[in-house]
């Protein structure tokens, strides 16, 4: 199942916000080599 562009943008914005506020999350978030499509369909 594919996410809509709006849904993917919402998830991406949330993850970026979370990474800016949580250093432990940011380390894992930026270390993983996944696309937003991979994250949405996980």
Low confidence ranges: none
How many beta strands in the DSSP annotation? 0
State the end-to-end distance.
10 Å
Radius of gyration from the CA trace?
A: 11 Å
Q: Structural class, from secondary structure content?
A: mainly alpha
Helix count equals 3
The average pLDDT score comes to 87
Measured by DSSP, the beta-strand proportion falls in: under 5%
What is the makeup of the main sheet?
none
- Approximate helicity band: over 70%
Number of domains: 1
Q: Return the string of H and E elements.
A: HHH
Shape: flat
Q: How would you summarize what this structure contains?
A:
Helices cover 74% and strands 0% of the residues. The protein is mainly alpha-helical and 42 residues long.
List the helices and strands and how they pair.
Elements: H1 5-21, H2 23-31, H3 36-40
Helix pairs in contact: 1-2
Verbal overview:
This protein has 42 residues and is an all-alpha fold. It has one domain. Helices cover 74% and strands 0% of the residues. The longest helix has 17 residues, at 5-21. It starts with a helix and ends with a helix. The model has no long low-confidence stretch (mean pLDDT 87).
Essential attributes:
mainly alpha; 3 helices
């Amino acid at each position: 199942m594919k996410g809509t562009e709006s849904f993917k943008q919402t998830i991406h914005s949330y993850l970026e916000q979370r990474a800016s506020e949580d250093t432990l999350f940011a380390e894992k978030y930026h270390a993983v080599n996944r696309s937003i499509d991979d994250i949405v369909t996980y």
